[in-house]
Design goal:
The chain is mainly beta and 203 residues long. The chain has one helix at residues 4-13; strands at residues 30-32, 38-40, 51-53, 70-75, 78-80, 88-90, 100-106, 110-111, 116-118, 123-134, 138-144, 147-154, 163-173, 178-185, 191-193, 196-202.
Length: 203
Amino acid sequence: MATLSQMLARAVDLFGPAATANPTKLYGNLVVSPSGNILIGTATDNGVQKLQVSGNAEVSGYLAREAQVAFGLTQFYYNTDNFTTNQNIVMGSSAYWGGTTVQVNVGNCFNPANGSFTAPVAGDYVFSASLTTSNGDTYLEFYKNGVGIGIQWLVYSAIADWSTTSATIILPLAAGDYVQCVAASNNSTTATGYGNSFSGFLL
């Protein structure tokens, strides 16, 4: 068992060498803030995250994340023979698509009733989608808060019965922002979809 003098010496060491010891900071700028958060480096307490690190961090081994926000869905078949010219259909929305299966929905941030993913926290999110169609020109477009931000075209070719397009995008979102993926026809009324997908996760 350590002696009292040894424990006192160790306590002093926690604040750095005697000549530069700072009793308000543990050695290496490790601070426990009044709100109970741990700050490493020159981090400023934002009162939200329990651990804040300024600078690079190295992790040896696996970093377990108990609730990694993510969703993914597949659509096995949908016939859009009633697709009017330039009509938009929200991918994943049960109101429009048949055969939709939500494979994962960690955090329940994806709403299959309207095909929307709502960000629970601010951060960078990755979204991917694919669309396979026949008999008509179609395209994919991601929407952020109801505004289109990019189109991926799929021009139907009579040589191939089925054609596929896909797109991936990284979006900075604030908490409460929502993202949808829309499939649309272009100058076509007979587009048929099969094997579509839409997914996303927080980086």
